[in-house]
Design brief:
Layout (H helix, E strand, L loop, with lengths): L4 E6 L3 H12 L4 E5 L5 H6 L1 H22 L11 H25 L3 E4 L2 E5 L2 E4 L2 E10 L3 E3 L14 H4 L8 E5 L3 H12 L3 E5 L11 H13 L3 E3 L4 E7 L2 E7 L4 E5 L3 E3 L3 E3 L13 E2 L2 E2 L12 E3 L10 H16 L13 E3 L5 E5 L2 H8 L3 E8 L13 E8 L4 E8 L3 H13 L4 H6 L16
Parallel strand pairs: 1-2, 1-6, 2-3, 6-18, 8-9, 8-14, 9-10
Antiparallel strand pairs: 4-5, 5-6, 7-15, 11-12, 12-13, 16-17, 19-20, 20-23, 21-22, 22-23
This protein binds flavin-adenine dinucleotide.
């Protein structure tokens, strides 16, 4: 049987585009369908616009530091509209680049909603295409908790990039990395921020020291963090949104017309036609094996729609492993150990490998922790009390570094390098034998005792 395409990809986000291009490089005939903008969540409403806003939010700290170095900085003023317009212009520019990259790779791009009508056929509006192999890369979408009355008045991270005006007061619900990042961004830009979380600490799943350090720093910067607040009720009033928040004590907060629900994401599987195939859904996500294969032999899935580790580089690497295996004559599986990740909070944090709790659960007493907390040189002249925390977790029998964590400036840049060593199985002796770059914060990772 002959098909229109060797591979057809549903969803042109991080995973879909990377896979389509890699398969096309190997000579496969590839098509891709996208109903929204090319680039997916990361480029249009995730990592990229968020990081640009993080940069915008960091200037007040640097203005403050500048005076310690002899600079007189005039009155600073922030204009939300200028920033949002610039951020969205950059997103537009990236959309154009994605289109050109796909064209150059000879991937045929369809604009529309892809629905599987049988296991080899995809409908895009009136048109139908067939493919020998199909990749589902439809990503995820934010979900608002349905147990909060009035939650329909809250926006999600999706809408924040298009707000025409800066909110003066905002309540962010949810202490995951997206909630924490937006709390820091908006606070840095001058919005009055309250972060409401159900538990006692933000960022569950991350190393405890990292969680406490960021939470403390956020409070010191003026972000109110209301912990152990399981019940929230939102109503719209003349003066804004009224949030009644119950916990140990009840409290009422009034926010602008904006409160942000950063409470999680789920795979976007609606109207995808999975019921017309043998593809299985488990816990709301497309079920796949270690080769990203679904229960239907020639249908594969990568990225957030499989709800494994929901990060852009993971979606890309899963997709490339699939393309290398099926079109490049190699046999590749995605490796999920030692995936580094960052929290673009203020202060920034990044991490690779096991948390202390995970290491203790895995290795018992055979764990040694190295910790260092210091004021980076940059903050000495301005006399600012900004600290960096670094932590190494070593499994003492093999002497291997099994976790590295950091809170402080450039954490993501520094941990990316450390991650290579951890991934290669470097020991603490290897770290110690590495000469530091002086003066830097990063050298602390090779001098810890
Ligand atoms: P997506 O990028 O979401 O792409 C899926 C695409 O499929 C979308 O464009 C969608 O429109 C399209 N689609 C869906 N259904 C259909 C259909 N039936 N037909 C046609 N098209 C369809 N990750 C990081 O690594 N670092 C970060 O700093 C980071 N920050 C983030 C910040 C925010 C606010 C958010 C929301 C996410 C962030 N992420 C970050 C996560 C990252 O964006 C995702 O992990 C990544 O985009 C997943 O890629 P994907 O290809 O699986 O899905």
């Amino acid at each position: 049987m002959s098909y229109d395409f060797d591979l057809f990809v549903i969803g042109a986000g991080s995973g879909g585009i990377a896979t389509a291009r890699r398969a096309a490089e190997y000579g496969a005939k590839v098509g891709i369908v996208e109903f929204d903008r090319l680039g997916g969540t990361c480029v249009n409403r995730g990592c990229v616009p968020k990081k640009l806003m993080v940069y915008a939010s960091n200037f007040p700290k640097d203005f403050k530091a500048a005076s310690g170095y002899g600079w007189t900085v005039g009155e600073s003023k922030f204009d939300w509209n200028t920033m949002i317009t610039a951020v969205n212009n950059e997103v537009d520019r990236l959309n154009g680049i994605y289109q050109r990259m796909l064209d150059n790779s000879k991937v045929k791009v369809y604009q529309g909603y892809g629905t599987l009508i049988d296991s080899h056929t995809i409908a895009i509006g009136e048109e139908k295409v067939t493919a020998e192999k199909i990749l589902i890369a439809v990503g995820g979408k934010p979900v608002k908790p349905d147990d909060i009355p009035g939650i329909e008045h809250a926006i999600t991270s999706r809408e924040i990039f298009h707000l025409q005006e800066q909110p003066k007061r905002v309540v962010i619900i949810g202490g995951g990395y997206i909630g924490v990042e937006f709390a820091c961004i908006l606070n840095g830009l001058g919005t009055e921020v309250t972060l409401v979380i159900r538990k006692d600490k933000i960022l569950s799943g991350f190393d405890d020291d990292i969680r406490s350090e960021i939470q403390e720093a956020m409070k010191n910067q003026g972000i109110r963090i209301l912990t152990n607040k399981p019940k929230i009720n939102i109503s719209k009033t003349d003066i804004g949104l009224e949030l009644k928040i119950a916990g140990e004590q009840e409290e009422t907060i009034v926010a602008d017309a904006v409160s942000l629900a950063a409470t999680g994401r789920i795979p976007r599987l609606e109207n995808l036609g999975l019921e017309n195939t043998k593809v299985e859904i488990v816990n709301g996500a497309v079920a796949v094996d270690k080769y990203s294969q679904t229960a239907e032999e020639h249908i594969y899935a990568v990225g957030d729609c499989t709800d494994r580790i929901n990060l852009t580089p993971v979606a890309i690497q899963e997709g490339r492993a699939f393309a290398d295996t099926h079109f490049g004559g190699q046999s590749k599986q995605m490796a999920y150990d030692n995936i580094p990740t960052a929290i673009f909070s203020t202060p920034e944090a990044a991490t690779v490998g096991l948390t202390e709790a995970e290491a203790r659960a895995k290795y018992g007493d055979a764990v040694k922790i190295y910790r260092s907390k210091f004021r980076p040189m940059y903050y000495t002249l301005p006399n600012m009390q900004v600290k960096t925390l670094m932590k190494l977790i070593v499994e003492t029998e093999s002497n291997k570094v099994v976790g590295a964590h950091m809170v402080g400036d450039y954490a993501a840049e520094i941990i990316q390098g450390v991650a290579i060593a951890v991934k290669m199985g470097a020991t603490k002796a290897d770290f110690d034998a590495t000469v530091g770059i002086h003066p830097s914060s990063a050298e602390e990772f090779v001098t810890m005792r």
